[in-house]
Amino acid sequence: MPQLRIKDAATFLGVSDDTVRRWVDSGALVAETDEAGRKVVDGYQVALLARDQAHTATDPSTVGRSARNRFVGLVTDIKTDTVMAQVELQCGPFRVVSLMSSEAVRDLGLELGSVAIAVVKSTTVIVETPQGAS
Predict the structure, then answer these.
(1) Strand (E) positions, the chain?
(2) Is the pLDDT of residue 87 over 90?
(3) Left if phi > 0, otherwise alpha if psi is -120 to 50, otherwise beta: which for 109?
(4) Between vectors from CA 89 to CA 83 and to CA 94, what angle results, nearest 5°?
(5) What's the pLDDT at 74?
(6) Partners of residue 101 on adjacent β-strands
(7) Which of 26, 74, 131, 132 is a good FRET partner for 81, with 20 to 30 A between their CA atoms?
(8) Which carries the bigger pLDDT value, residue 73 or residue 125?
(9) 97-102 long-range Cβ contacts below 8 angstroms, 24+ apart
(10) What's the CA gap between 63 and 70, in Å, rounded?
(11) Residues 6 or more apart whose Cβ sits within 8 Å of residue 56
(12) Spatial contact of 120 and 65, defined as CB atoms under 8 Å apart
């Protein structure tokens, strides 16, 4: 299993190094010492903890849909011209940008600060690794 340094685990978890150390002390994460004498944690354990700690806003719609990738957020920017618009949402830690017609922006009543749900349905999802490692 990949090992992560405490500071890297903290980055992925969105917390401070001290918080990760407290989780190690409490047993929420198990730490080992690497060959350089640094404390490291199991990457998979960090991934599971990240998933368990993830909090997103509840989808306020009651619409059934096949798309599983829904991101509830707030509108942070709208750029429109006569035909097209670019709408930016902040969905938890994620920035989601959508291109749509200006008419759709008006029909949806989108404005800065309004709640919106980005629904992503794609047949292509690209997964990358750091430094091209496979």
Answers:
(1) 3-5, 31-33, 39-42, 69-80, 84-91, 94-101, 115-120
(2) yes
(3) left
(4) 140
(5) 85
(6) 84
(7) 74
(8) 73
(9) none
(10) 12
(11) 71, 72, 91, 92
(12) no
